[in-house]
Amino acid sequence: MRVWELIRFAVGAIVAHPLRSALTSLGVVIGVAAVVMMTSIGLGAQQRVTGAIAGLGSNLIIVSPNFQRGGGFASAGAGQGFSLTDGDAEAIARQVEGVAAVAPVVRGQAQLAAEGANWNTRIEGVTPPYLIARDLTIAQGRMFDEREARQGRKVVVVGPTVARELWGDADPVGRRVRVRSVPFEVVGVLETKGQSGFGQDQDDLILGPLEAVRSRIVGRRSRGDTVQTIYVKSETAEDLDRVQEEVSALLRETHRIRAGDDDDFQTQNMASILQASQAAIATFTVLLAAVAGVSLLVGGVGIMNIMLVAVTERTREIGLRMAVGARRSDVLIQFAVEAVTLSLAGGLIGLTLGVLGAFGIAKLGDWPAAVPAWAGPLALGFSMLVGLVFGAYPSWRAARLDPIEALRRE
Description:
The protein has 13 helices and twelve strands. The protein is 54% helix and 18% strand. It has two domains: 3-52 and 276-408, no CATH class; 67-263, no CATH class. It is an alpha+beta fold. Strands 3-4-9-6-8-7 form a six-stranded mixed beta barrel. The chain is elongated, with a radius of gyration of 33 Å.
């Protein structure tokens, strides 16, 4: 028999029982759809985490005080609440090679008021290198300079969200804004960065000179020359690990930490955090896909059961075809084609539902839609494999039937 005739017979047998064929393929439909959606969710999570970490800045090391289990900050020799100071930032900038920018930061929340409008936002006291460290740019106006930062001048740079909420479409540069009860002059507006990977509005903040913000806005939470964070930007990604090691060694020396004692600070390498996060999410994605893939095996068992029933129901048909000249290989191929067709049809439907489901989840949950390019070929290929594997025994059983005994079967 020709191959096209075998395919026509197989398709005809499937079409003759549409409801049974649909129910047989249902397990494969659910399995493929689940695998595609779970993979999409995992890749979406990976993109969100990557975006969140990349939004902090490239080639970045974050130095912060080390928390103790009992709460509060670990203390250096002086025993103060914050273990990092302006002097630490200056030492890093002066002594560590390969550093593009060092930016000490203090932060807090503040109520803003300007021309009858009010807005609550995040305020950060920084130095001019902060823009370089965090990969920020000025859209309007300018950044305050080193002299203004050193003198603690009452000037601020606002994010686009703050500018819109307080002044609408008007140009805020040169206008006054009260931060709590302290008047500041707006000298610049940041370029828009949008939402972070964790859903935080990166444009909803204001930047002021470190000394002015520390002494006038967050003075109750920060004393003397202490800071909450020091951002260190490496010149190249290749130097990132070396810079991190040198920063740690320098701070241990300046803080007079003895060998064997715990650090009163911690350094975080954004590249290492990104790699660890991606590895964890990739493992989680594989686990989700494996769990969803179990339904594919269930679908394969369903195909085997139905094909065995079909062999029993069509025993006389098989015997008749073999009696008029069909070879055992023809019967084997016919039933194998039926199993693969059922599985492949289920795979196509499941792939369509999986892609639609992935984009639906992304739209409803504000989640990145990330259907990998290999999802389609892999889903269809695995569907065919399921059909071949689970259709092999019923096809072999049909081919092994004795024509004479088959013709006697009622």
